């Protein structure tokens, strides 16, 4: 026996092998409905904000990894019947965000040519698709919950990094932040109802909710600092003299 003894013993049965908990279908849809709708609204509002500011509204790397997740789990992998149409609807809307990413995303990478940026985007999408396929297959994760939950943590952090990197509210709005937060909140409860004994999900979604709330506060303060209303629907782009978007990229 190794000294000192382990503080936490491993379970006899890995939680990942446990089946979904029994739950009424109406409870699933009460939780999953706002989750799916919240994300669709967040996507739509991000597209609208990006058109106004000419800056992508979703962090570039998140667009790539998220698009690959939605693509593989709606068109490639065997998926739970109830989840497939939701993933497909997200994927179709995300295609518009990808288009905006190719048009505006290079502004977050001023030291990179637009050609190199495009190669990076499609390279990350391809790698992420393979990763999602292999991970989902390895875990036999028919609902994509493990990769999706991990992606959600990465997404939430990326919004804060994007705000810090840009130093302004360009491409961002409180409405996107709130819609994303609502979608993630109900996603968490959906997962916890389906898999109540999975402590990893409890930890990850508490992390997501905390980060989402932090981002809302930081974005609100930034917009106020810029002298504008965080709730103005058609507020103009923030004036940032050193914004790399005013530079001409090498094609």
Automatic annotation (TrEMBL):
Record's keyword terms, sorted: Membrane, Transmembrane, Transmembrane helix
MF terms (GO), sorted A to Z: lyase activity
Membrane-crossing residue ranges in chain numbering: 26-46, 117-137, 143-163, 175-195, 201-220
Pfam families: Pyr4-TMTC (PF25129)
Membrane topology: Multi-pass membrane protein
Location in or out of the cell: Membrane
A GO CC annotation given for this chain: membrane
Record keyword Zinc present: no
UniProt entry tagged with the keyword Transmembrane: yes
InterPro entries from the UniProt entry: PaxB-like
Protein name per Swiss-Prot or TrEMBL: Integral membrane protein
Organism: Streptomyces iranensis
């Amino acid at each position: 026996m190794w000294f000192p003894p382990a503080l936490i013993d491993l379970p006899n049965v890995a939680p990942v092998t446990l089946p979904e908990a029994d739950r009424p279908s109406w409870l699933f849809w009460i939780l999953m409905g706002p989750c799916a709708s919240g994300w669709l609204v967040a996507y739509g509002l991000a597209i609208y904000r990006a058109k106004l500011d000419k800056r992508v509204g979703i962090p570039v790397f998140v667009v790539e990894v998220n698009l690959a997740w939605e693509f593989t789990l709606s068109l490639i992998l065997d998926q739970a019947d109830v989840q497939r149409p939701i993933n497909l609807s997200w994927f179709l809307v995300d295609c518009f965000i990808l288009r905006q990413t190719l048009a505006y995303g290079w502004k977050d990478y001023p030291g990179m040519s637009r050609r190199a940026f495009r190669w990076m985007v499609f390279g990350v999408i391809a790698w992420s698709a393979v990763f999602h396929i292999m991970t989902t297959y390895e875990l036999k994760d028919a609902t994509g919950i493990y990769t999706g939950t991990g992606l959600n943590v990465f997404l939430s952090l990326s919004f804060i990094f994007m705000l810090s990197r840009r130093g302004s509210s360009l491409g961002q709005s409180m409405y996107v932040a709130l819609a994303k937060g609502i979608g993630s909140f109900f996603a968490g409860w959906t997962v916890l109802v389906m898999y109540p004994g999975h402590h990893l999900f409890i930890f990850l979604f508490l992390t997501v909710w905390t980060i989402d709330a932090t981002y809302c506060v930081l974005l609100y303060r930034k917009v106020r600092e810029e002298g504008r209303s965080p709730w103005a629907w058609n507020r103009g782009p923030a004036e940032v003299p050193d914004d790399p978007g005013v530079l001409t990229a090498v094609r």
